[in-house]
Design a protein that fits this description.
Elements: H1 2-9, H2 11-39, H3 41-45, E1 52-53, E2 60-66, H4 71-86, E3 90-96, H5 102-116, H6 120-129, H7 136-145, H8 150-157, H9 160-176, E4 183-186, E5 189-192, H10 197-210
Helix pairs in contact: 1-2, 4-10, 5-6, 5-7, 5-8
């Protein structure tokens, strides 16, 4: 009755109250998510099997969850690689998170297998930059063009270790409420969706300031 009275007398008050409540809920959700990130940070930043660029003793770590068939992931490739080149004290950890169908899983497995041959960066950039839709044949063609041993790649793609990395990332994403790609994380924040090099640099700077 009171709300109805206020709505009739001054709807602006009700609108502001709803907006304030919504802002509080969003902040509560953000704080809970950041808490989960902190609780899982070792698995996010230092888990065995995840490809990474940058020094192991970096003073900041940026984590990206991605899918090779994700258009937004492809769009931010240049920004991510440019940030890695511009910041020598940053380590970027790449979390294979194939959520867009079976071909995404094939690409993720191939990527992790390529890492075992020491050619992950080259393969990653080539796969992300490939025009048109991916197919299993196209993925293998790109692997061959990158100089990978295809026979060994196929063996490693089906290994328990590769399967474990993908499953671990799926569990982590679920725990953190990540349902789409790309998603960028530092220890104290998360940015879902595409982000520019400038936005990512600010995210990293905030993590450094937070310590």
């Amino acid at each position: 009755a009171i709300i109805e009275y206020l709505r009739q007398k001054d709807p602006e008050i009700v609108l502001k109250a709803v907006e304030a409540w919504w802002d509080e809920q969003e902040e509560y959700r953000r704080q809970r998510q950041v808490g989960r990130i902190a609780a899982n940070w070792e698995a996010l930043a230092r888990a065995e099997g995840d490809p990474a660029i940058g020094p192991e003793d970096a003073d900041a770590v940026l984590v990206e969850f991605f899918d090779y068939r994700c258009g937004f992931c492809k769009r931010v490739l240049g920004d991510v690689m440019a940030l890695a080149a511009a910041d020598s004290r940053l380590r970027i950890v790449f979390k294979e998170f194939p959520i867009l169908g079976p071909l995404s899983v094939v690409a993720a497995r191939a990527s992790l297998a390529a890492d075992r041959q020491g050619k992950w960066t080259e393969f990653h950039v080539a796969l992300m930059s490939a025009p048109g839709a991916l197919s299993e044949d196209r993925i293998m063609d790109i692997a061959a063009e990158t100089g990978l041993d295809i026979a060994q790649l196929r063996v490693d793609m089906e290994s328990e270790a590769v399967t474990a990395v993908i499953e671990r990332n799926r569990v982590l994403a679920n725990a953190l409420g990540i349902g789409g790609t790309p998603a960028f994380l530092v220890k104290n924040a998360i940015v879902p969706g595409a982000a520019s090099q400038e936005d990512l640099a600010k995210l990293v700077a905030g993590a450094r300031e937070a310590g």
